[in-house]
C-alpha cells in the first residue's frame, strides 16, 4: 500500500483553537484535581495520578520489556550498588544518587503496570527513607566512609541525592495517597529552611546547586497540598541558591562555549526558570528557555532535540557524544514545562527526543545501554574517541556499566514518566491529549464524572489517532467537558472528525484545539496529522530529512558481538559489552542544492507495509520513504535501501547522490591522510595520547547511528575545505535502540571522508 505525502484533506471539525500558551488562566478552577494555590500562577494542565494513564500498543511492549529487563532486575544485575549494602537501605555501601535514580524510574513503572513483584522491590527503599528521618527533619544516609572501588560512599549529606528521593516520595504519594509522605516532607522542608542559610546547596557538590529546580518543584507541589506559607519562603531561598539558569540563557555565552556546562545539569536546569515562574510571575523566566533553544540550534544542538555533551558541552558536531542521562532528564524537564505553560513547543520537542533518542541508546531487551550516543557513529567499538570525559574507551559500546554507571541507574525514568504525561487534566475541568502514543486514560471530568478514553494509534509512524470514549459508571453515560488536542507545529493541515463527521472550523499548527461539547458513551474522535517530508540544516550546513516527529536515515545491517573485557583498568565498567558493526553499504549522501523544498513532495513517496504495526515492533519495512524509480549507485540499488531518496528525474546533470566509499575520488578531491604526529595539540586526549592513534571522530565524519523503528534520518554532507563531511543520523528499532556501525578497524592514518583505511 502506498500513499503520497501530498494528501487532499477534507474540511475540519467544529472546534475552538487557542494559543499554545495558556498561562495566566486564573479564572479556571478544576474541581477534580488541585491546581496551583495562590499566589502561584495557575497551570493550564494538571498531572494525573500515577496509574490513571496506561500504555498500549508498542509503548506497552516497551514497558513490559523494562519489567523483564534491566529495570525490573537491577538489584540482581548491579548487586554491588543496588543490593542490601546500599546506604538508602541502611547499608554501608553507596550513599549517593544511584539507588534513588533507580527507584525514581522503577516506582512509576511498577505502579503504572500494576506489577506487584516490582512494587515489593520499591517498598523497602521508601520505608527505609521514611524511617530515617531525624527529629530535626533530616533524612537519608548521613555517614561518609572510606573509598571503595565502584561505590560512592562520601558526600552522604549532599543535598543532591535527596532531591532525587524527593521525586520518589512525590510519586509514591501519587500512587498510594500515603499521608506519611506529607508530614515527612513538611518536616524536611522546615529543616531545609533553617539549614540552607548555613549550608547552601553548593556546600558539598556543585550538582545540587545546578539541579536545585528538582528541589523547588517538590516544594511547590507540597505547598499546593498544605498551603503552608513557609514553603514559599523556602522556594525563594532555593531559587536564590540555585545556579541562575535564567541569566545564563538570556545574558551569558555558556551555550556558545565548549566545556562550559555539564550536559545533564543543563537538561535538569532547563526547567528551573519555568518552575520558578510559578512564584515569580516574571515572563523573562519563560523567555529564557526559548532563548536557550534558539542559541543551541546554532551552537551545541543536535537535530534530535538534544546537544553535544561528553560530558561537558561541545559544539554540535555529530561525532561528539550525548549522555543517556541527558535524554531522560530533558524529557522530564519538557514534561513539566508543558504542564506549567501549555506551550506546544515543549510537546513537539519532547516527542523529538523521545522518538529519536531514547530508543536508540538501549538494547532491545533492556539488557544493556550506551553511555554516550553519537548521532553519527562510525562504529560501536571499544576504541578511543575525542570525548572530554573518556571512560577506558567504553563510552559508546552497549553494556551494563560501560562508560559510567549513572545511566545504568537513571535510564528507567524515560518511558514511565513519558507515559504518565501523555494525558493531563485541564484547568477547565476537561482532559487533554498533548503527547501522542497508544494509551488509555481514566480521569474525572466535568462535575466529577469518570471518563475512559482509549487512544488507538501507531503514531509516530502513522498519521491517524483514534480516541474512543466510554463512561464506566452505570449512572453517567454522558458529560459536558472540553477535550484538548495538540496540533504539532510541523502539521499544516490537521483533520478532526467526531463520529465520522467533519466541521469547517480550522485547527492551526502549533496550537491546542479545545473541543467543548457534551460527550456520550461510544463517541469516537479521529485526529489526522498529515506528515510531510521536510529538510533542516544543522552542524556545518548538514541536511536532515524529517517526517512528522521522526528523523530518517539509511538502513544498515547489524553485526552484534558480545566481548569480554579483561583489562584490569576497566574492571569496574563490567565484564562484557556488545560491539556493533556493519558490512552493508553506508556511505551515501545527498547534496543540499538538489534538495529543493518545493520539489520534496513530488520526489518522495511514503510506503506502508501491510503488517506494519501488528505487534508493536517496527522495522524499516514498517514505514518507508523511497522513490518510485530505481536508482543505482555502482552495484547498489538505492530504492531498496528503504530510505528517503530523490527521484530519478532530478539526478541529471550532476545528480545529488554521491558515493564516497573506500578509495573513491569525488570530483578529483583526493583522500587526505595525516600521520598521528601531525595532529594538532588540540586533538590530543586529556591524558596526552594523540587522538591520531585511535579513532579520530573529528575526522571520521561519515557514519550512522541506528534508527528508531527503522525510521530515522538521513543527514547529509557539506564541503569543508578539501574534505567531504557526511552527516548521517539514524535511529533504528523503534523502541529498541540498536545501532548500525561501520566495521571497526585500527588506523595508522586519518581518512577524511572514509573511516576505513
Give the strand line-up of the largest sheet. 4-9-10-11-16-13-14
Residue share in helices? 25-40%
Secondary structure category: alpha+beta
User: Tally the helices: what do you get?
Assistant: 19
Beginning-to-end CA distance, first to last residue: 42 Å
Mean pLDDT: 79
- Could you describe the largest sheet, including whether it forms a barrel? 7 strands, antiparallel
What this model shows, in words?
The protein is built from 19 helices and 29 strands. It has 757 residues and is of the alpha+beta class. Among the domains are: 122 residues, Immunoglobulin-like (Sandwich); 196 residues, no CATH class; 194 residues, no CATH class. Helix 4 runs parallel beside helix 6 and helix 11 packs across helix 14. The relative contact order is 0.13.
Give the SSE layout.
Elements: E1 2-3, E2 16-18, E3 45-46, E4 53-55, H1 57-68, H2 74-77, H3 79-82, H4 98-112, H5 116-131, H6 159-176, H7 180-195, H8 206-210, H9 212-226, H10 230-241, H11 245-251, H12 263-269, H13 272-280, H14 283-297, E5 322-323, H15 324-341, H16 344-356, E6 372-373, H17 406-410, H18 414-420, E7 423-426, E8 431-433, E9 439-445, E10 449-457, E11 464-470, E12 478-487, E13 495-498, E14 501-502, E15 511-520, E16 524-528, E17 533-537, E18 543-547, E19 550-551, E20 559-564, E21 576-581, E22 588-590, H19 600-603, E23 605-608, E24 623-626, E25 632-633, E26 636-637, E27 657-659, E28 717-720, E29 723-726
Parallel strand pairs: 8-12
Antiparallel strand pairs: 1-23, 2-15, 3-7, 4-9, 5-6, 7-8, 9-10, 10-11, 11-16, 12-15, 13-14, 13-16, 17-18, 18-19, 20-21, 22-27, 23-24, 25-26, 28-29
Helix pairs in contact: 4-5, 4-6, 4-18, 6-9, 7-9, 7-10, 9-10, 9-13, 11-14, 12-15, 13-14, 13-15, 15-16
